[in-house]
């Protein structure tokens, strides 16, 4: 089973990253293009990592926890001045 509280937190935290990325994409230019490319590569990597975790017997909680780590890192990166 999974922890619904952790899933809800992931959803809330991910919304901040979506907001920050949309702003960066809206500004466009080199930074917007680089963010779009990084976003796609991160999503592919996260999918492969999550699939591997589940295929090797990992739990849904482990996947959610790892996604929350990725989201926190993106929030930190996107809010850095």
Describe the protein's architecture and organization.
The longest helix is centred in the middle third of the chain and has 27 residues, at about 30-55. With about 80 residues, this protein is mostly helical. The chain is globular, with a radius of gyration of 14 Å. The protein has 3 helices and no strands. It has one domain.
Descriptors for this entry?
about 80 residues; 3 helices; mainly alpha
Summarize the entry for a quick read:
The protein has 81 residues and is mainly α. The protein has helices at residues 4-27, 29-55, 60-79. The longest helix is centred in the middle third of the chain and has 27 residues, at 29-55.
What is the total number of structural domains?
A: 1
Ends apart, CA distance between termini: 39 Å
Largest sheet: none
Beta strand count:
0
Poorly predicted regions are: none
Strand content: under 5%
- The number of distinct helices, counting runs of at least 4 residues, comes to 3
Averaged pLDDT: 95
Find the structural class using helix and strand composition: mainly alpha
Helix-strand pattern: HHH
Helix content: over 70%
Shape: globular
């Amino acid at each position: 089973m999974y922890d619904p509280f952790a899933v809800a937190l992931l959803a809330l935290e991910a919304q901040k990253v979506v907001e920050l990325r949309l702003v960066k994409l809206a500004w466009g230019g080199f930074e917007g293009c680089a963010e779009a490319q990084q976003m796609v590569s991160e999503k592919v990597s996260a999918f492969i990592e999550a699939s591997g975790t589940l295929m090797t017997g990992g739990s849904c909680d482990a996947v959610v926890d790892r996604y929350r780590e990725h989201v926190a890192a993106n929030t930190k990166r996107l809010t850095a001045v």
